[in-house]
Fold:
Amino acid sequence: MPHLTIEYSANLAAVADLDVVCRALHRAMLDTGLFELGAVRVRALAAAHYAVADLLPENAFAALVLRMGAGRSSDDKAKVGAHVFAEASKAFAPLFATPHFALTLEIIEIDPAFSWKKNAIHPRLRATKNGNSPEDKNV
Amino acid sequence: MPHLTIEYSANLAAVADLDVVCRALHRAMLDTGLFELGAVRVRALAAAHYAVADLLPENAFAALVLRMGAGRSSDDKAKVGAHVFAEASKAFAPLFATPHFALTLEIIEIDPAFSWKKNAIHPRLRATKNGNSPEDKNV
Amino acid sequence: MPHLTIEYSANLAAVADLDVVCRALHRAMLDTGLFELGAVRVRALAAAHYAVADLLPENAFAALVLRMGAGRSSDDKAKVGAHVFAEASKAFAPLFATPHFALTLEIIEIDPAFSWKKNAIHPRLRATKNGNSPEDKNV
Structure:
């Protein structure tokens, strides 16, 4: 049940394609081999109002938070974080050529004792060759 | 001070009424008897950009996070979670008839040492018969 | 890397200027002397759908979550929280004259082991007199 939420200053939409970014990070999460296809949910939330650094109008940010189920090793979490962050850095590369952009990623674990889920996508994907069962990959 | 935030893929708005969902979950939280009326805040944040599972355009999700004050028992938290999730499942029932929807709920406690609040609604409701004082119900 | 996110019911925009609020809280964070200018990111996310307290249409809320790097003392965190909350209370003062508004603030620490960041604003600000290096202030 990995959830990747991208909060971003709305001015970013003028200089980056957030659909492309979402897809790039969706791909990055699958690259790691740690997540099942049917569980990956990447989304971007625009903040129409913001105040960033020295308040220049071109200052922009993307703040990524990845919430994932507990139980993976610290090594695996570090691997996921490093890879997703590297791909996010690529996706936003033109922004880093300016002195007006900041990117962050944070991983937070979901406490399984206080988590509920119901997924109607899994059965469809697990029944086809397109689906990746977690049993085929990692626990 | 219970906060229930629903992040959802914007395509969900075409097949579900988010105002109705917010009200159903507001009701579900009050049903538990653990929350004071004036403190319940349910809201839904649309993500205009997203990448879900196998990227079919009809793939949609709702990701609920309930942040509530610490101090309740694990049993009470489990009860709240189970009830809110059951009511959310009902609210989104037509979606579960498709193979394109995923629902999650997570409960997170708020650390009272690093929490501040000011509520101008409480005095109004506590002064009337409509208000539910927490002293009347549960601690 | 302090992140301040304001979730608010969309009806608040009719009675408060969220750009002004973002700037006031940006100022409040810098006032504390604990954060570097180039790292401060304040933003507001509107919830178009919500259900608050007794469901009067004028019921509104702002829910602030400040995520900041770990390592500061509890005293410093309490000082930051109290100051940001006091300034938020001022920014929303007209709302507290009504019985329809609720404000909260929560501070959450970011686990440095699972945090990644890249900031193109820092070099620009650190190179000028406008920048505040953390070494000049607090650790």
Summary: The beta strands of chain A are 3-9, 41-47, 49-52, 60-69, 101-110, 115-119.
